[in-house]
TrEMBL record:
Record's GO cellular component terms: plasma membrane
Organism: Kitasatospora aureofaciens (Streptomyces aureofaciens)
Pfam families: GtrA_DPMS_TM
Protein name: GtrA/DPMS transmembrane domain-containing protein
Similarity remark: Belongs to the GtrA family.
Source taxonomy: Bacteria, Bacillati, Actinomycetota, Actinomycetes, Kitasatosporales
Length: 192
């Protein structure tokens, strides 16, 4: 069966879908950022932890809350056949994102010697921005994979099978109708 232009969504429709996905990703991510910065601030100021330890604790808590948002809101329609694989990949890519974010913070504090709380927050913003781009690409590409689209041959064979079943049902129905007509004709003939 030939692929028609109607079976492929136009570029505008794909971009519209991607825009919606980016907005939802941003909403979930923004909630994670709020949690991340709040925990980071409490760890640095309230608990007196070092900046890297505070960053790791804050990021781990944000990762956990973000997973719930991504899985049950943004990517709820994606393939969830293998949750173990999904969670493993999510944690791996989130961990890489955390390393990116923590690396930027470590570079700022230990190499550039910018270690006031506000300078650390600024470094955290930059690291988080870079890590967010990495996470978006990796989550949508490898973690929350889209359900595979049916192949045109499979769609055609399914349609052909449905048509054949419909035709067979129609032939069977026609045979039953003819049998009923013959029976009625015999009954009328006997009544006369």
């Amino acid at each position: 069966m030939a692929t028609t232009a109607a079976s492929k969504p136009p570029l505008v429709q794909k971009l519209r879908g991607l825009t919606g996905e980016v907005v939802k990703f941003g909403i979930v991510g923004l909630s994670g950022v709020v949690i991340n910065f709040a925990v980071f601030w409490v760890c640095i100021n309230g608990l007196g932890l070092a900046s890297l330890r505070s960053n790791i604790a804050a990021t781990v808590i944000a990762i956990a809350t973000n997973y719930l948002g991504y899985r049950y809101w943004l990517y709820r329609d994606r393939d969830a056949a293998s949750r173990k694989r999904e969670i493993t990949l999510f944690l791996v890519f989130s961990g890489i994102g955390m390393l990116i974010e923590t690396g930027v913070l470590a570079f700022t504090v230990y190499v550039l010697h910018l270690d006031s709380h506000y300078e650390q927050l600024g470094a955290k913003v930059i690291g988080l921005a870079v890590a967010t781009v990495f996470r978006f690409v990796s989550y949508r590409t490898w973690v929350f994979t889209a359900l595979p689209e049916p192949e045109p041959a499979a769609v055609a064979s399914t349609a052909d099978a449905a048509h054949a079943a419909h035709t067979a049902d129609g032939q069977e129905l026609a045979a039953q109708a003819e049998l009923m007509l013959v029976t009625e004709q015999i009954r009328y003939a006997k009544a006369e």
